[in-house]
Amino acid sequence: MHSICSQATAVPRSNFAFDSHAPALPTSKPINLRFCGLRKEAFGFSGLTHSCSSRVRFTSRGHSKRISASAENNGTPPKSFDYDLIIIGAGVGGHGAALHAVEKGLKTAIIEGDVVGGTCVNRGCVPSKALLAVSGKMRELQSEHHMKALGLQVSAAGYDRQGVADHANNLASKIRSNLTNSMKALGVDILTGFGTVVGPQKVKYGKVGFPDNIVTAKDIIIATGSVPFVPKGIEVDGKTVITSDHALKLESVPDWIAIVGSGYIGLEFSDVYTALGSEVTFIEALDQLMPGFDPEIGKLAQRVLINPRKIDYHTGVFATKITPAKDGKPVTIELIDAKTKEPKDTLEVDAALIATGRAPFTNGLGLENINVETQRGFVPVDERMRVIDANGNLVPHLYCIGDANGKMMLAHAASAQGISVVEQVTGRDHVLNHLSIPAACFTHPEISMVGLTEPQAREKAEKEGFEVSVAKTSFKANTKALAENEGEGIAKLIYRPDNGEILGVHIFGLHAADLIHEASNAIALGTRIQDIKFAVHAHPTLSEVLDELFKSAKVKATALSHVPVSEPVAV
Amino acid sequence: MANVLQTSFLPSTSSLRRTPISGSKGKSQALQVKAKIREIFMPALSSTMTEGKIVSWMKSEGDKLSKGESVVVVESDKADMDVESFHEGFLAAIMVEEGGVAPVGSAIALLAETEDEIAEAKAKSQSSSSSSHKVVEEQPKQIEETAPDVPAAAAPTVSASKTVALGSAAHPASEGGKRIVASPYAKKLAKELKVDLGTMAGTGPNGRIVAKDVEAAAAAGIVAASPAKPAPVAPGIELGTVVPFTTMQGAVSRNMVESLSVPTFRVGYTITTNALDALYKKIKSKGVTMTALLAKATALALAQHPVVNSCCRDGNSFTYNSSINIAVAVAIDGGLITPVLQDADKVDIYTLSRKWKELVEKARAKQLQPHEYNTGTFTLSNLGMFGVDRFDAILPPGTGAIMAVGASQPTVVASKDGSIGMKNQMQVNVTADHRVIYGADLAAFLQTLAKIVEDPKDLTF
What we know:
The complex is a heterodimer of chains A (571) and B (461).
Chain A: H1 29-36, H2 40-52, H3 63-70, E1 83-88, H4 92-103, E2 108-112, H5 118-123, H6 125-142, H7 144-150, H8 161-186, E3 189-192, E4 196-199, E5 202-205, E6 213-222, E7 226-228, E8 241-243, H9 244-247, E9 256-260, H10 264-275, E10 279-284, H11 295-306, E11 311-315, E12 317-323, E13 331-337, E14 343-349, E15 351-354, E16 358-360, E17 386-388, E18 394-400, H12 411-425, E19 439-441, E20 446-451, H13 454-464, E21 469-474, H14 479-483, E22 490-495, E23 502-509, H15 512-525, H16 529-532, H17 544-552
Parallel strand pairs in A: 1-2, 1-6, 2-3, 6-18, 8-15, 9-10, 9-15, 10-11
Antiparallel strand pairs in A: 4-5, 5-6, 7-16, 12-13, 13-14, 17-18, 19-20, 20-23, 21-22, 22-23
Helix pairs in contact in A: 1-2, 4-8, 4-12, 6-8, 6-10
Chain B: H1 2-5, H2 24-34, E1 38-41, E2 51-57, E3 64-65, E4 70-75, E5 80-84, E6 89-94, E7 101-103, E8 107-112, H3 117-132, H4 184-193, H5 211-219, H6 247-258, E9 264-272, H7 274-283, H8 290-304, E10 310-311, E11 319-320, E12 326-328, E13 330-332, E14 335-337, E15 340-341, H9 349-364, E16 378-382, E17 401-405, E18 409-414, E19 420-433, H10 439-454
């Protein structure tokens, strides 16, 4: 990586720091300093991409003057538009884009039709982390074996459902107000109401029953997110047949709950519910639980997260009809074989959680006004998040990020896409490498991943004619993990032995979600194994799991001479 | 249960039984040369590994294996690794079940070269596994396993009669094809405890089978006082042998160990039974039994002391049972069962006696329904008929108290007025869970019980 940043060569290996690019890009320094206190990720992200990805260049330096002049005043209004940038939707994606836009000196407005923070903060990652924090602690306290091994004695652990629910709710409120305040502090205009695109560069918004306001902007970002997807035949009553929206309020802890879908959402809820005393039945349409995870990780995760817990499962079946409980009858679930479509079984449970994924929330956006047709609800975009119309042409000045475009339905992916768009509209071409975006599932222990799974890597290797190798390390060999008495878990590295490129990293184990970033940063920056293996990790820490992983990889000697690292490629 | 039986000591052949574990490797390899049935060993996955845990078998018994194919996942001190087969053949017998631990170099499975040899290998694995958990035994004589179709995982059994499913409530024709509604944990437990869900009635919502039903079925009748457990001095027993538990005995063992987690204490009382004996003589002809009388008296006393009829399920609360169901321990072939007299405080003594006879008959015929043996809220164990004058019972998990009843015997008693007389007296001894039932509660209960027994007119109402 230092081979690209010529100015940084003087700085030895650990040139991940801000210092390394400071002499190269003096104009950006004050801005970064100003904002890094407010928003760490903006600092990290932009700092690194400026300095080290040659794809990101200052093609236009004109705006830098405006930045310093306007950073505190939310930009100067352009002659012909109300705003430089309007973002429809104030979720994590919209928020990330708005903050970066202000940083870049754009006069920015954000339209929110519901609550600031969107799904992630109000009905997703944030409250679920509160519940999972509780479940993690319950699990620990309930594991007599674990406690005994540590020499601890704990009398029976119990919980107060309302207290747990309040914790989740309070956390969501807190993060929501943090988000709102951060935008207000920077001078982002928060417009309340439902936003609709009425024409090129023109948006109307307003609450029901109030006159609409029309605003214009040079560029528009659609960031309307998604809602839980409920397959037809399933009747959601919000009490016994629920989606994640309801489950996060934790209004009840049923004795027996069926979870339809064994992806991230289903797995996390199974962790919460079983820790709180429920029994869980998974219903998965595919033949394997946890599709989408690296198969090896999935297998191990099943061994740890499913088999020893009060969970059973039906795979290869569809839930065609789910009827809520009423008149003393339980929730009934009709299952058919996913392949033969023959009726297979009927389940009677106390509650059912529908976790079959999420559907884009794009109705009423007025896309027809600009000749855009959604695909299964998703807004079609190119690799730069530019919206594509029905004829396959780019719609100028219109972008779509996050769940609404369906590229990668993760909050931080939406934010990264938003930042990428802002980079583009402020005159610097930028393409986001989705393979460098990490993902995590916050079960106990956690699962995290970045890049390709092993089968994906092998398929790609076959197509492109390169060799793939796999290295693995175990948490059992890690001092810190053993000190915590949490030795269960592995880390897996998929790489090219010919040049040391990291293709994917998958971790299952204690704090996996926090550990993945060393790998995702390496992929984002194009760091090779032969370089990163010399990075030093504090001892004893869990990060040594990755240290050992990189060190155990066998990169061919030919790659060890200085080969320029390839640029991150958009996917 | 298989996990319990398949302990870590698994020398592969009978010839190795008396050799220390560390020496087993060389000898078993020598044996392997002449056998067509090969052993799959616990490999040394790291230099520091001394034993390994079987995480999962990737193949089942009878599966064909090709050379280099992964057979089993082993967990060492460092990592989980797939173990490959070095030979082609059929996985004939798994000797260490999933979750089991085996020392490095010991056999964990047998590989047959041809399909025909599978049965032979199975027999071999069974003979070795039956001895396996007692390496230290001086003269372990093999229990001849004659039935070749018993799966290797199943515990070798002494006689067919003892393999009968738990509680023996197995109605041969009970709701055969009907769908079983059981919660995920109940299913898991049933598999683990080898209890047939089909023979069980659920007590959960909508009649669903829940974990406690399975536990109750597994514990059925075997939870009463361990001294009450009859030593099976049946003729067919060979001395000097090691006989693995039957499923029921395994469940007893598990429950007895589990009972250690409950803080129990005991309170005894001597009760004069002259009046009760007189009453018994009077109504015996109407089919009333002593057991029914005792149950009735106990139930009436419990009605006045609901806390003694309560239990502690979660360590945090009292569960006050809505009905008074007296479970009475009965010895049956190779074990124990506790038929339950439901609502014993409300049902009259004649009906109660008829019910008791019916329950005993059903128990002998192994036809008790689960609700007839697992719904007790208070247990009676009576060894009086054997002349036992006092004993001490172990509290069955899930209940609050158990009363051990000794024989009623003529005793010389000094009364307060200075006279000496002879009275029939029996000693009762209650074991209770001190988390919910305190000494004063038991004392008060016993006082009430003594009053009822000494003045038994209420028993017949």
